[in-house]
Amino acid sequence: MKDQFKSLDGDGDGYVTVDEFIRSIKNSGRNPDEYDTKGFFAKADKTKDGKITFNEFLEAAEHLNLVDAFTATGQSSKDSASKNNDAFTTFDRNNDGKITPSELGDALRAQGQNPTDRELNEMMEAADTNKDGTVDKNELSKVL
Q1: Is the backbone of residue 54 left (phi > 0), alpha (psi -120 to 50) or beta?
Q2: Calpha distance 86→91 (Å, rounded)
Q3: d(CA 70, CA 63)
Q4: Which end of the chain is more exposed for a tag (fewer CB within 10 A), N or C?
Q5: pLDDT tens readout for residues 123-136
Q6: Which helix (H) or strand (E) holds 120?
Q7: pTM for the whole thing?
Q8: At 39, which helix (H) or strand (E)?
Q9: Do 99 and 144 contact (CB within 8 A), yes or no?
Q10: Contact by Cβ (8 Å): 36, 76
């Protein structure tokens, strides 16, 4: 889901505007008039600021049952589950079945990334749907 969001976020500012969304639809060779972009934004833009955050995007996609469409990769579900499990194991450093913000940061830094505290908090907030402060396998699979 994060990759799909980034592909829509044309200027990389962490938000998707209506214009960016329409431009993305056009760039994919589709007709934006066939989509209810204003309706999608009205539902997704909880803060009514004209921009959709990743969390708003994820919530709207789940609400509209688009998560499977966005995450479909053409791989068998077994391959996809295996990749999700591998990803989870990479982040769950102490193997307790939960990813903490600290584990997420450590794993990303080990991969050569340098996320800010704000970015880590946004990632955790987006993935932690039950709001327990950690991310389990099911939650992680929804954002991959």
Answers
A1: alpha
A2: 9
A3: 13
A4: C
A5: 888 889 899 999 99
A6: helix 117-127
A7: 0.48
A8: helix 37-44
A9: no
A10: no
